[in-house]
Amino acid sequence: MPDQTSSAPRPTLEAVAERAGVSRATVSRVVNGGAGVRAPLVEAVQRAVDELGYVPNQAARALVTRRNDAVAVVIGEPETRLFTDPFFAQQLRGISKELTAHDSQLVLLLVEGTEDYERIGRFLAGSHVDGALVFSLHSDDPLPAIIRRLGLPTVYGGRPGWPGAEDDGNVLYVDSDNRGGAREAVRHLLSLGRRRIATITGPLDQTASADRLDGFRDVLSDADPRLITEGDFTPLGGERAMAELLDRCPDLDAVFAASDLMASGALRVLRERGRSVPDEVAVIGFDDIESVAALTTPPLTTVRQDIEGMGRLMTRLLMRGLDQRHGNGTGPALPLSSVITPTHLVRRVSA
User: Fold this and answer.
1) Among 17, 45, 160, 218, which one is least packed by beta carbons within 10 Å?
2) pTM reported for the whole predicted model
């Protein structure tokens, strides 16, 4: 006998109303997130919805709640970075978990090239999402200006670096204590008796890289400029930078790399050059990405930041702001402010 399930009509609001013993208008208010319905009636409607398998119309729900239940996650990096750097996977895991808890969808937008900014701007302007989570920006990135022009609720991952951002109370962001973490790393190397300490920075058009370099200089204000070189947060960038440092300063005895991936590349070059770690050269990374730091040879001492936790914090901050903006929050309005999360040193074999 043929299966009739696929041809069965979808349950309607009227059917739910009849099952629950309430009016169609009451069902509409409940399933579309409206207020003003007594708790017993809400329970009756929800029970009928479950029994009938009713799926609310998203367009109708959006008209009532003024919410799309979707958030854009905009990453200022190309696809190749996203899928090769585990930092982004951890950040997205935290965001996804928190959005799921808020029954909201994640819409991922990547920047492959300058031509993508117009496309992203059109999408964000099209009322497809309630807000945006934006991270891995570079200093010349036009995204903040686009978002300001649209007035879209946004939380940034990382300290904003464009002019005037630090004094703008409307700019919300979540970041780790990059500067403090770098200071702790360098002080640890000094406590080991290291005196020729080099650093491999991240791209200096990003605030996290600049802050970690500032932390290095806070402790070593008179560091030899030849001991400072710029990387790009990739293993290959760490290899190139480490080779450059060894060519310049073969007597260096320690390296602070501004990411675990760059530190992993640095370790490979040190091994190829016959330099023992940590006996001859101590190495410290930044991030504490388990899939990197625990699997290098030797296992990497690093500065831990809670990457997944920062993703969750970004999402909570955005959702709280959206609830207050649309009058959906319970209790008194909570202050919205940026968050700096702590870092700490994780000691393994490399330093």
Assistant:
1) 218
2) 0.81
